[in-house]
Amino acid sequence: MPIRWPKGKRPCFVGVGQSPCVRIDITPNFVPRSLSDISHEAATKAIADAGLTAKDIDGISVFPMSAAHGAAVEQPGVDMVDAAHMMQVLGLENVRWYAELIGPMAVTSIIEAANALASGSCNYVLVWRSLHHPVGVTYRRIRSTTAGQEAQFRLPYGYDSYQALHHTRYMEKYGATREEMGAWIVHSNRNAQINENSVWRGKTITLEQYMKARFISYPMCLYDYDMPVDVCACVIITTEDRAKDTPHPGGYIAGYGLSPYNKLKGGVVPPLEELYEMNSLLARNMYESAGMGPKDVDVAQIYDGFSPMVWTWLEVFGFCGVGEAHLWTQGGRVAIDGEMPINTFGGSLGEGRIHGMGHITETARQMMGTAGPSQVKGAEVALCQVGTFLGGASFICTRE
After folding, report:
1. What is the pLDDT of residues 362-385, one digit of tens each?
2. Separation of alpha carbons 278 and 4, rounded Å
3. CB 374: neighbour CB atoms within 10 A?
4. What is the CATH number of domain 11-137+227-398?
5. Quick count: other Cβ atoms within 10 Å of Cβ 16?
6. DSSP class of residue 376?
7. What is the spatial distance between Cα 258 and Cα 393, in angstroms, rounded to a whole number?
8. Residue 398: in which H helix or E strand, if any?
9. How far is CA 334 from CA 299, 330, 343, in A?
10. Could you give the CA distance from residue 250 to residue 40 in angstroms, rounded to a whole number?
11. Quick one: 377 exposed, middle or buried, by C-beta within 10 A (0-12, 13-18, 19+)?
């Protein structure tokens, strides 16, 4: 059943602000800045973009976990920016409602903000994600010397991820090739070149480079993983009745869905087929709550912290059949001027790792009509998905 927001209380994006994605070892003329300073810049830009001032913000929602979770002390303003620190940085006068969430990444923050606005708990919500990649620290390096339960079969072999195993299964079952995935990487990099915030801007990747890149975990190579960066990205959300007084409202949230983890039967590595079953329910619930279907969507931002998950998400969302995405994404169909534009800003693979907040800011820009060179002409409905195929959250929003 479609969500029925109270009259005049449909949640709507009204502002976006972001700092450039930077990496000390590759960003030209890099000047180190504190995460606190970067976050203040992005939040201030978002508030100004919405035509507001800091005193208008009375709600905040954030997924605060640091990029180096488990490998750093996690000091506010240094390794992460939590609700209390952002209140202090911006000098917010009266935050009536706030939420600090743990997942699935940034979309959960959007869902909570939307519900808070609809209930009247607050009027203007700032949502952000701030990330800092510490110099000399391997991303998410695990320091523990022991591992129990299922982890004992995973952690001794490296980072706790199943992406390569699931991708191998997909390739074997559906006949996908590394050349086809290479074409997706080139697509993401091409879109990143017109994104002024992208860490990859000015650094192109060719199919030949992809095929020759060193493997991280076969069949995934260096370019199949997004790049940890220093960055903050923010959006401002308000209600329909207040949005009309802002410069460029757009992106009225129509519905959302989350992965129902009860569909996983347990075990060391959940089978790919089990994940399809779980996330197909997410897609169904999202479409039903929005009163729409895949044919209504004009542009989509699909999380790509690891490249293979894009194909599987596209399939459960019904843009193509199961096992068909490796072919469906070829030939320009997903380009900005194509039949179904996907990750118009370059995605995480092109822009840098913001744990999905980049997908949210681009969704907001597309619906507000402020996406600049990546703007999809005539786009009226957008889908945004954040989280790995092991579990995520998604929403649909409309231009009007």
Report:
1. 999 999 999 999 999 999 999 999
2. 25
3. 19
4. 3.40.47.10
5. 25
6. P
7. 4
8. strand 393-398
9. 9, 8, 8
10. 24
11. exposed
Instruction: State how far Cα 376 lies from the chain centre.
Output: 19
CA distance 131 to 129: 7
CA distance 97 to 117: 10
353: left (phi over 0), alpha (psi -120 to 50) or beta: beta
- What pLDDT sits at residue 147? 73
Distance between CA atoms of 41 and 39, rounded to whole angstroms?
A: 5
The CA distance from 362 to 193, in Å, is 15
Look up the pTM and report it. Answer: 0.95
pLDDT of amino acid 160: 55
pLDDT band at 144 (very low <50, low <70, confident <90, very high): low
> Which single residue is written with the structure tokens 């308000």?
238
Say how far apart CA 71 and CA 236 lie, in whole Å.
Answer: 31
Cα–Cα distance between 352 and 346 in angstroms, integer?
9
* Beta strands 97-100 and 299-302, pairing class: unpaired
Instruction: List, for residues 170-179, the tens digit of each pLDDT value.
Output: 999 999 999 9
DSSP-derived secondary structure letter, 203: -
Q: Which two tokens stand for residue 336?
A: 């900005």
Query: What's the token pair of residue 212?
Result: 């020759």
Nearest C-alpha neighbor of 280 from the set 355, 167, 162, 392: 392
Dihedral sign, Cα of residue 268, residue 256, residue 20, residue 77: negative
* CA atoms in the 13 A half-sphere facing the CB of 229: 32
Please check the confidence at residue 23 and state whether its pLDDT lies above 90: no
DSSP conformation class of 9? -
* Residue-wise DSSP of 126-177: EEEEEE---TT--TT----S---GGGGGTGGGSSS--HHHHHHHHHHHH---
Distances (CA, A) of 307 to 62, 163, 329, 349: 25, 9, 13, 7
Beta strand 215-217 pairing with 299-302: unpaired
**Residues 394, 282 contacting (CB under 8 angstroms):** yes
The amino acid present at 340, given as its one-letter code, is: M
Phi-psi region of 356 (alpha: psi -120 to 50; beta: other; left: phi over 0): left
Question: What six digits make up the tokens of 266?
Answer: 């347990």
User: What would the two tokens of residue 44 be?
Assistant: 């201030």
d(CA 127, CA 120): 17
3-state secondary structure of 109: helix
